[in-house]
Amino acid sequence: MTRRLTPGKQAATGTAADGAAETASVPAARTAAPLPAAPPELDYNGRKHRRAMDDATLWDMARRIPMALGQTARLAWSVDRRMAITIVVCQLLSGIGTAVMLSAVARALPQLMVSDPREGLAQAWPALAAAVLAMATGAAMWILADWATRRLNPKIASAADLTLVDLHMRAELAAYDAEGFSDRSQAAEIGALRAVDLADDAKTLTNGLIQLASAATVLTSLHPLLLGVLLLSVVPRGLGGVIAARIDYRVHDRTISARNVRGMMRWWLTTADLADELRANTMRGYLHFWYRTMCDRVEGRELEAARPYLLITLFAASLGGLFTLGMWASLAGLVLAGAMSTAIAGTAVVASQTAGRALNSIIRYGTVMFHHGLYLSDYHEFIDEVRSMTTARGTTQAKPPQRIRLEGASYTYPSKDTAAVQPITLTLNRGEVVAFVGENGAGKSTLIRMLTGLTVPTDGKVLWDDTDLATACAESVWRHVGLVPQKNGHWPLAARENITLGQPCEPGDERIWDAADRVGMTTALRELPDQLDTLLARSVWGGHELSGGQWQRLACARAMYREPAVLVLDEPTSEMDARGEHQIFRELRAMAPDRITVVVTHRLDNVRMADRVIVLDQGTVREQGSFDELIATERSLLGELYALAQDR
Ligand SMILES: Nc1ncnc2c1ncn2[C@@H]1O[C@H](COP(=O)(O)OP(=O)(O)OP(=O)(O)O)[C@@H](O)[C@H]1O
């Protein structure tokens, strides 16, 4: 099981760590003071191919290089065919350039080795000119391929990133609840980040392969034995590179959960949103300790891998060096035995130098591509997984409903055994304001998600008139919804966009000011430096910040601006002052005739304005009726909760 941190532990240990951090300027985790318990180990177990990785042979792993090259080629082809073709053509021409150059050198050397250098030069100059021309062509092709790669790389990176972000936004909400989702998402993100260098590394690797093939062809034509010896020097270094990459990936694999949770925590520790709470409640000490522990954990695992990494690289390099020595010895032996002329041996030296350089880049970039291949497979697996979980439910276009009906609808979260909402049968009618009431965890938000088609019931049906939401096009359903969720977005956009977000552009600002007026934000927005154009993002230069209640008013304005057929507000006024709250509920009543309005609130006085109150208890409808009826009913849950609210 993936273990999660328990907030209780943090709170309990906060004081000790605070002391440690406050009394010394050195980081808490490195003092001798008693330290709180370390955060639990997190295990990245959401991976499907982890076992496959562990069982993979070196051959399986080496196969990933062509796979990664194939994936890169497909990506490149999909973003810019012209540049992809340019790179391939340049690579081939550069390889041909090398072969021509080596053959020309092979032709020129025996001619140069005559006793009269003038005569030698006179004979060899056409071959030498061909060699120079071939080298220049190869270099020009390399530069052209480089230019094409620079154009391709950012496009590949953006395409990979866009795909990932878009799929997240289109995934069924249940996908987020799947075990290990955020770990897999993080691994895929690393894959997408690697896409920045993909084409460049693939180009260098293929160039190395083409150069090696050219050199090997020339070497074989000189003497077949030379090719065998050359290949022997390739194998150990290649294998060493693959094993070293595997070690690296294992470290990545073992630290991914710690890095993931550390990344999340980093946001919490550095965001201005939580800066007050963190300081005033003296949380810094423990949180510093926690963060330091996670850093140490990641660092420790990376350091553990350093020794085997060094050993394997040293071993492979020594073996490769020995074989290269063997090649020089074979050349010397062939010349001494009279089986090869000194001129041919000289050409072999030039060819082997070219092959050696090509080999180095193959090993270096083969390892890099192998690495990319591992991360890319994380990326592609995640993409496939989320693609199968996007909200593609059906093609029926939902219309603004006169009636929403739940027929035995229930919902069980993927990670839970018991249903958050038990089978419920219920009808909501247009023109009605319905309030959902109940204690924490009673299932109100879960029910709202089903009513609005955000989730499909795990059992039973939700019908908008005669349309079953399970088979309706989700976007067509949401077009008629206006939702103010418990946690709403403080979008780092202009004030105007914070109201119109999700709606098509319209000329003029009248409706925007109208929505602002409904929630009592006109004055506040008019006082902003650029009114509706003011950027609402404190962290950005020139940005402006709103108060908590003002953000909530803006979220209500956003939902009202949509003039939806189904208006749903989950604790819409929890941060508002009495005036704001009064205004919102008055507006809801005024807007009610044209829509189905659902309000969730713990402030029971607000419930009076509803036509019907539905009281939920442990996922079931415990009672429903008007506020006055339910309050008057003996031993009603609403009556009990209301009495508690009054008892101060
Ligand atoms: N994403 C989730 N994964 C698993 N369980 C969840 C998830 N969201 C909610 N639950 C569980 O479902 C139950 C109902 O939660 P829900 O959020 O619907 O309650 P609620 O009535 O809206 O509570 P509150 O008044 O606190 O907002 C709770 O037991 C909660 O722990």
TrEMBL record:
ABC transporter domain span: 404-643
Principal localisation: membrane
InterPro entries per record: AAA+_ATPase, ABC1_TM_sf, ABC_transporter-like_ATP-bd, P-loop_NTPase, Type_1_exporter
Keywords: ATP-binding, Membrane, Nucleotide-binding, Transmembrane, Transmembrane helix
Transmembrane helix among keywords: yes
Membrane topology: Multi-pass membrane protein
Name of protein: ATP-binding cassette domain-containing protein
Taxonomic lineage: Bacteria, Bacillati, Actinomycetota, Actinomycetes, Kitasatosporales
